[in-house]
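job 3f2a | input accepted
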Amino acid sequence: MDFWKNQLGSPSKIVAPMVDASELAWRLLSRRYGAELCYTPMLHSTLFTRDPKYRKEALATCDEDKPLIIQFCGNDPKIILQAAKLAEDYCSAIDINLGCPQAIAKRGHYGAFLQDEWDLIEEIVQTLAKNLKVPVTCKIRRFETLEKTISYAQMLERAGCTMLTLHGRTREMKGPLTGLADWTYVKAVRNAVKIPVISNGNIQCIQDAHRCLEETGAVGVMTAEGNLHNPALFLGLNPPAWEPAEAYIALVVQYPCPLSYVRGHLFKLFQHMLSAPDNNDIRMRLGEANSIELFQHIIKELKDKYLPYHKGEKCWKQTTEEGSQNLVLPPWLCQSHVRMNAEDYKKKIEEKATLDSNHEARCKREFQDADGNPLSRKKMKKLRRINRRPLKQTTCERPLYTCTNCVNPLGSKCNYQLCRKCCKNKCFYENLDCIGHRILVKTRRDMAKYYTEKEDEKSENLEEII
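job 3f2a | predicted structure (466 res):
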């Protein structure tokens, strides 16, 4: 607990590591809106050790960006240690990512896809804990059973982990099947270990944060998606989206980052406005924007459109259109995006599959070939592609002339009104050139004759000298 209190300052409001989203400018914005601790994005340890440019961008920080924890992923203890040694002077601790459930982590064999290899994980944590001058922390996901999750956490504590972040979801709970995080696992782990435990998951407003701390006994809460949609979450505020957007753009000007990061943040901040059908054009232009000036123009456009409603100069009427439904607050205010629960999503997918199968059956009955046989969907797609092709030009732009010696087509630029084969024979036997066919028989023979004469002169001169 000394590390959490003395070196980190007892933070309870924490911004999660987010790939392409928790860069320096966004971390500084989050701190100004109440965050007490931030993580860097997940950094690939192998790239970090080999690529100086990648390392320089990843280590971008400043005095205001403290305390800071740098997170690495990987599966080789030596490489992770090498990367951590290069980063330890820039942070308060090194975190090991053992919780990423995405497909890229599965392909790279890191994150949550290491959680079944306890010997390897223990070796990684021990190697870092023994050789770094800063503490080692870990971010994990729960297992299906409470007992295994507790044993996992205790193993990490024994290996040298000084602070543990537990995501209350399993490795399989992601994307549309995310579901709710189970805080009972966090509470059980908190009671089973002596190191500080941070709870991750289900934090969409300040009330969620307070309730999580009370129910789990964790020292802090960590949020990712809630922070992206409302960076003022930890202050309990719901500012109009253009306020954090303008502040973020100002920080990006001071601390540059890839424009793809900026675009992603603006899409999250303005998601509820951009989902409205009458803002389709603005959404398209935001997706195509490739400069800070264009981003600033789009922010101003949305601000000018919704500011009269925010001030009460115009009356906002809640509609049932897509982008406005199920919102607690008006769409221009920062608020969390509430996902469809996993059960409803599965039901929706099943209904869609049923509709697709019925539609396919109707298509097979409705569309038939010349013999009366039903067309498959694959055949129908091929026919549609063929119908979309432009019509081929059936007439030639110029008349087709034939060679004077044979029936082959005449070369359009031939000096002798011949096809290539006849022209080549004529040039060979008559010592000619044809510029149109690029046949240079005469030129090459003259050059060969010239160089032969030069060689003979050199030989004669050499004999005279001898």
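job 3f2a | The longest helix spans residues 342-366.
job 3f2a | closed
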